[in-house]
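Fig. S4 source data, part A: sequence.
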Amino acid sequence: MRWIIRLLLALVVLAGLMVGGLFLLPADKVAALVQDQVRSATGRELTMSGRLTPSLWPEIGVATGPVTLSNAEWSDAGPMLAAEGLSVGLDLKALIGGEVVIREIVTQSPRIVLERAADGRANWDFPPRAAAPATAGPGGAGKAARGFTLDAGRITDGTLIYHDRATGTRTELAGVDATLALPQQDGPARVDLAAVLNGQALAATARIARVEDFIGGAVSGLVLDATLGNARAGFDGQAGLAPLSAEGALDADLADLRAIFAALGQPAPAGIARQLGLKGQIAYSPDGTIRLREGVLRQDGNVLSGSADLALSGKPRLTGQFTAGALDLSALTGGSGGGSGAGSGTGGKGQSGWSTAPIDLSALGALDAEVTLAAQSVDLGATRLGPTRIAATLTDRRLVLDLREVQAHGGRITGNLVLNGRGGNSVGGDLTVAGIAIQPLLRDLADYDRLIGQGDLQLKFLGSGGSMAAIMQGLSGSGAMRLGKGELRGLDIAGMIRTLDLGYVGPGAKTIFESITASFTIDKGVLRNDDLALAAPLVTATGAGQVGIGARTLDYRLLSRALGGSEGDKGLRVPLLITGTWANPRFRLDLEAIARERLELDEQKKAAEEKARASAKKAEADAKERAARELGLRADEGERLEDAARRKLEDEAKKGLRKLLGGN
């Protein structure tokens, strides 16, 4: 038992001696060493305020009061670093040998300012390291100071501010906890960082091959792994801080777009992607441009390949060229179109109307862009396209799509489409459609499938509003259509003319036609046409009226005439009134017009008969007059030409008889 007590007493005495020795440490010497090493590494002055206090926990060392690190001479933002205090951990083995060696520095609640001047200078561009000053030590004067090394440099609860005066951008990280491990000043280093950026958790780990090159104007190997929310990015290449530059392989999973846009201070566009990834060779140049080469962008099931440049100086601007296989963009366009679940053009039930959901084009203001895309197919939800080549130009929230070649429904579409988010939403276009199948086009765009045929279309349009319904109700424009052989479903014009029976209107009825031509204008969501011409084997038809695009209504008059060989070859024209809605149209014969048509035909027939009789009578009279002239007939007053002819014949007969008998 005695030996245990003696052992405990010995340990207490040893601990007392260690504590006493620590509190006898020359604090000024430790402070001077820290200042010398910081000055050697950065060329900046470290100022310590308050009393230096020795500490035993968590490590043997000293703690300071408030400290500051001077900024670049050209900066007016105050100190580059200002902290509530420093805790300096010492190497116990070196301390026992009489040498003060720093192993750890903990910076408490620092405010760190990183700046780039308008001329490109950066306050982290430290001047070349001066030779380390000689310091006195236990072994005598003139001993050279050790190179700047750290087993661990820590920042707790800090704030990091990055201010780029060239672009006017300012980014602030809060709640910064960081660790730097730098065993050798000219060797590798590791940095671990955790912070909050605009409310989003940010974490990063960087492994630097040569710190002295990295911060001194050269480039060094760099491996970086970072997370933002649930988004992740990895970089393996080389980089430098003076000036800031990087080049290497990038592998990023950017599925958490909400966190990314929130960190950038922008609202997240809805429905862009559940999975988003990017791979390729990436480079960042000191002029603020990010370049992507051999890039592969994955968005859900979509895969795009190509190259792009993103200039960050001023407003971000993207330029690039991409190719793709089958693209599904239905999530961006709100799914299947044609309104909000409207019934089919064959009379199906459902909500008949355009969507009133708000259209948000605010994402167009995130950047400017000039991008080309070539895809094997594109699913827009409302319609599906075949091989597609387009060029997109986005300038100040105005997107222009140049349709260089778009194949759809067996035809080809060229022209341009415009989405404008400046001061309210608007959409416009100038399209030329050649050889397209009309039925699937109208079915996809407007839930209307009664017209079947293939032809050409010219269309100019412009609309504005906060929803699809508002745009369609205010639509304006003009166009022309020409169809070849096809059919009009829901109406048998020839049968209706023969019977004047609306039983030839409705499901199952159809009109086969050879051609349809029409031109139209659009004003305030109403399409007007007055020159429709339909040619069919048994009938011809003309049409005029209006179609309410915004209200999805019909008010149209179709005037048909049967051709020769049918029961209508008397020329009766049959007017058909088409009213109601697209989903449920109503057909009605204009009986008053038919009655007027028949009365006009009767009058025309009577007039024609009278004219024919008068013509026949006149012809008879003319014939008799010609005969009288030829026979030399001369009628006495009141005598008919027939009687004069009989009289002359009798006189001639008498004369002939007298000559025969030899008399006078």
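Fig. S4 source data, part B ends here. The longest helix spans residues 591-631.
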